Amino acid sequence: ELRKLFSVVHVETAADGVQAVAENSFGACVAKLGTRGNLGCDVLEMLRSSQGSGPFVAVHSSTAAGNEKLRLSMEAKYGVNVWVSHGQEAKLLEALSLVAEGGKSSDGVRILLFGPRNDAPFVDMIRPRLESLGKVDWVEEAADGVRAVREHNYAACVSKLGVEGNLGTDVIAAFRGEFGTSPFVAIHSSTAAARLDWIEELASEFNVNFFVKHGEEDELIAAVAQAVAQNDPRLEK
């Protein structure tokens, strides 16, 4: 199935994978965890160190799918974009189809990420995953986010709620005022996701499209990927 989308280089040993990365440029990588002495992590480490955050990375592992600590660790180290377990191959192919269609990375696709420093672990985890979908402008201050929407065009915005004096809603309000209701907006907040009244208010006032809480980052990335693939961003100002 992968060969219908890409020119595929298949390796059975991590050493061959490391060599392949050294000799070729890749748009995506699908890896198993492997076993001691033949680890998929070695391939991913070489891929990220030599080719940066551009290539899309998917890990197929039922073990990792059930181990949040392992997933968070690998996302931070290797920028894993999608996790799938046995039986979720259709999800994997759907994500890779978006990559093959050009929804993964483009100079014309920008994503705005508002993540205050007090939530640094979230930023460190989600930023490399978003970078596989387009150029990410990360801002810590709402004022910088407001300035960014005046200087660039964005296909999507991912925002934390922030705190008084540094609110994500200020960024989203400027985002909607500049680009209208078409671009995708998501809020990552366990507090908001658990409050139906907040969801209704934020959706009504700011046209927020998607709410996620901690542990639902895969769903967030999938939603942003779909939105970016469907969005035809305007030319840079």
Automatic annotation (TrEMBL):
It comes from the Eukaryota. This is Uncharacterized protein. It comes from Noctiluca scintillans (Sea sparkle).
